[in-house]
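pinned: reference chain
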Amino acid sequence: VHHQNGICNAISEVIRRLTQCLLRLPDELGRLGRHPALRDYVERACARPAFGKARADQMAHFEAADAGRG
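pinned: its structure tokens
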């Protein structure tokens, strides 16, 4: 049972992060203006320390790849 809970938690976190990423772009483009609940969700999600770390790690990966091409 403990193993199943771990899998469920991991799947839940992946879905949460995917949702955050998918909604972040429309929010940045101002497309969530008529959807305050979604806008608030994106704001809360992006304020999470785990999201900030994941985004920083992703950007560092992209920057390292770009530097390797130069």
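why pinned: The mean pLDDT is 86. The longest helix spans residues 2-28.
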